[in-house]
Amino acid sequence: MVFKLLFISIFMVYATGKDIKTNYQYNENNHIKLISESVLYNKGDTKLNSYGGGNSVYYTNGLPINFDARKRWPNCPSIGHIYNQGNCRSSYAISVASAVTDRICIHSNETKNPIMSAQQIISCCYLCGYGCDGGSQFESWDFYRRHGFVSGGDYNSNQGCQPYMIPPCKLINEKSPRHSCTTYNREETPACEIKCNNPHYYTSFKMDIYKGKYYQVSPYMAMKEIFDNGPITTQFYMYRDLIDYKSGVYQYDEVSDDFFTVQSVKIIGWGEENGVPYWLVANSFGTDWGDKGTFKISRGNDGCFFQEKMYAGLPL
């Protein structure tokens, strides 16, 4: 019986990416303290979102109603850069590599701009998942802590040690067999290489590694975390109606159950539009999708489980 309970505990820790005892922090350096739900509802410096839900209360003391990280750190162009994951379910790797890139720049006082390689995570992080068949943003963050990231830019960019190797495609809400991200055959996951595969990059693999720490972010402190340290990542259940998004604040229609994928994204800000609070999000479907690659999703009701698994990290 003891062995069985131990096995279940270990499985839950791996599956959720959380320590069951604390249900919050993985990294040994506490950056944000876990705050119980009962405390959240008694904070005098919070703003209660009218859409309700357990994650509808945020720390807002001294924070603006509208915030865009691209404007706060204008010399970190990676914050606004939109990736195209191509026909590869690699958003778990792209979102984390992108957020780490942003935070290296931000915490160097906007003087360093190395671009972290999503390709390295896809090909070499075996605990992260299944390469182009999907994976875990939590394990991608842990790969950053354990092994570190090398540099690498977009497909055909010749930037960094290991640039992205999957060609871009356009996400189209269609069912006929045309060349789009929804119907084209899934790309094969490129093999892992412990060397720089960019012939135009002259720094060695070992000398190109960037390491850091990471932590889970409480929804209550998410806005302050973004304001202080830069973009964070999350993953959510994406439904097919979001494929057609162009503008406005997306709110999941509970009548629809047309599930599309589990998508990991980078949160770069927040705001209110026509009285509706939202998160400002950078996706990885290219600039042709959404509002030049970004979208707004309702903040406060945890629709699509958007606030369940927020993570961030800091460079060492």
From TrEMBL:
Q: Which SMART domains match?
A: Pept_C1
Keywords per UniProt: Signal
Annotated signal sequence range: 1-17
- Protein origin, superkingdom: Eukaryota
Give yes or no: UniProt keyword Signal. yes
Q: Which Pfam families match?
A: Peptidase_C1 (PF00112)
Q: Where is the Peptidase C1A papain C-terminal domain?
A: 63-314
Q: Which GO terms describe its biological process?
A: proteolysis
Residues in a coiled coil are none
Q: Return the Gene3D superfamilies for the record.
A: Cysteine proteinases
The Gene Ontology terms for molecular function here are: cysteine-type peptidase activity
CDD domains from the xrefs? Peptidase_C1A_CathepsinB (cd02620)
Q: Which family does it belong to?
A: Belongs to the peptidase C1 family.
Q: In its UniProt entry, what is this protein called? A: Cathepsin B-1874
The organism of origin for this protein: Aphis craccivora (Cowpea aphid)
